[in-house]
Amino acid sequence: MGINISAKNISKSYNNNFIFKNLHLDIAAGSFVSIMGASGSGKSTLLNALSGNDYVDKGNIFFDGVDITKLNDKEMALLRKTKLGFVYQFFNLIPTLKVKDNILLPIYLKNQKVSTVIKHYDTLCNILEIKALENKYPDQISGGEQQRVAIARSLIYKPEVLMLDEPTGNLDSQATLKVMEYLSKIHKEYNTTIIQVTHDEETIKYGTKTIHLVDGKIKE
Ligand code: ADP
Ligand code: MG
In the chain, how many domains are there? Predict the structure, then answer.
C-alpha cells in the first residue's frame, strides 16, 4: 500500500502571479508528510495540484510513475474514486445525511454494494471511535467528531493516498490531538501515503517528514 508521488517542475499562477514556479517534490510511498507555510503561501494550491483537484500551468505529477497531468477527465475521476482520499478543512459533510450514510456516500455514488465494505466500515469506525455516532446527523456532533467522520469517508474505499487540507484548522487543541492520533493510527495500520497541509506546529510530530513552502519554493 501507499503510492509514491513525484512532482517535477510544476508551476501555477493566478492572473500572472506565480504561486509556485518550477517546483520539485518527492513523497515516498507510505510516508506521512506535513506541508507547512504561512497563510496565503500557496499550500492549498499545491495540495489541489498534487491531488488533481486543479490543473498546473506546467510540469508533471507522477503517482507511481503515472503522469496524472496527462489523464483525461474520466481517468482522473477513476483515480480519485479509487486511489485518492481528500479531506477538506471544513469537513464538507452532507447535513441531511446521517453519519453512517456520509461515510458510505462514496460507495453509494459508485453503485457498489455496502456489504462489500461493511467490515472495513466497522474497522474505520473503531479506529476513529465514531461507531456510537453513526445514527446522528452532522450538526449533532462536535467539530472534532465531524472531522473524524470526514476522514472515515475519505478512507472508505481504501485509498493509497490521503491528502488533508488543514485537517485540524478548525479544531481546538484537544480535538486536534485526537484527530492527529487517529491519523497516525491509520498511517500505521494501512501504510497510506499521507500528505497534510498544516500551520499547526503541534501536528507535524505525527508525520515522518515536514516541508516548508516559502515564497513559492520548497524548503525541507
Ligand atoms: P494557503 O492555502 O497557503 O493559505 P492558497 O493556496 O489558498 O494559500 O493561496 C495562495 C495565493 O493564491 C493567495 O494569494 C490566494 O489569494 C491566491 N489564490 C488562491 N486561489 C485563487 C484563485 N482561484 N484565483 C486567484 N487567486 C487565488
Ligand atoms: Mg489553504
Answer: 1
Hey, what's the cell of 198?
498544516
List, in sequence order, the alpha helices (H) in the chain. Answer: 43-50, 73-82, 99-109, 118-128, 143-155, 173-190, 201-204
Please give the distance, rounded to the nearest whole angstrom, from the Cα atom of residue 44 to the centre of ligand 2. 4
The whole domain housing 162 covers 5-219
CATH of the domain at 55: 3.40.50.300
- CA 88 – ligand 1 centroid, Å: 15
By most ligand atoms within 8 Å of CB, the mutation choice from 10, 12, 14 for ligand 1 is 14
Predicted confidence (pLDDT) per residue in 120-130, tens digit: 999 999 989 99
CA–centroid distance, 191 to ligand 1, in Å, is 31
Q: What is the pTM of this model?
A: 0.93
